[in-house]
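Support reply, case 0932

Customer input (verbatim):
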Amino acid sequence: MTLPQIHPEIEEIRSQYQTVRSDLRAAVEEWHRLSNEVRPRLNATYQHYFGELERELQFKALEGAELFRRVELLSIKIARGERLTPEIIDLVNQVVDKEYAKFNRRLREAFDMDVQQRERAAQQRVDIHDDEELVMMYRTLVKKLHPDAVGANAPGSEEWHRVQNAYRDRNVSQLRSLLAVLGVNETEDHITDTWDIERWKAELDILEKRLQIEERKLNRLRRQDPFVIESELDDEAWRTRHTKELQDAVSEKEKEIAENREHYREITGGEVPQGTDVVKSKEDQTFDEDFMKNTYFGQR
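Our regenerated output:
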């Protein structure tokens, strides 16, 4: 029986393919480590030092933006020649209350809820598409990691518990990351044995492009907060400067609020109303998942 001849380049390409696949897995695992281990730790450290100031700044910023919006809408009506009756003023204020209900709810969840309350809120806002993806990824991972298949003490047992926790918390992004890390979609060796030289080249090209994507994704993550201030968090001098920066920012927001409050009085002859608590309305309680991932950063 004559054995099939192997193209002389296949072994070299196969080696390159295995190296790229290993690099890809390492990049995905590093992204997962930074996202799910390092970032929560850094955020907790940042909150310890600056949490109260950040909370004050965020709420002042929202208050200032909301007040500016009231003045803006009322000024537009005056510019159009409309007379500001009490009914018109009340209507404008109701419109602004509704516009900012979602943002008020975001801040309340970010700063005023405990961990369990945040988890319940996150569960309530998983949409249908995310729910379907959640179940699909969970089933795929279970097939690969179930203790009945790999053994209770097998290397995958730790990942099994991570999958269960992610599914319990309805954490779509973490399940997606686990799916990539564990390489569920990697091609098995007995299948690659049937590939010819052209198929190997094509598959290597696909894998290299995927690695480039993951490396760019990883580099972007490293350039974001809180990773770019990781070393500064241990620097007392930097913490002192940053505290002063936050205090100055709060003062600036307070000045803006005072100015716009005075403008509101000049326009309406009265004080800014407390506003209607429309935050609890059913339809207005949907908001973006990534807000909680960046509670303190990039939101000002």
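We compared this against your earlier run and they match. Two observations from our side: The two ends are 73 Å apart (CA to CA). DSSP finds twelve helices and no strands in the chain. Please reopen the case if you see a mismatch on your end.
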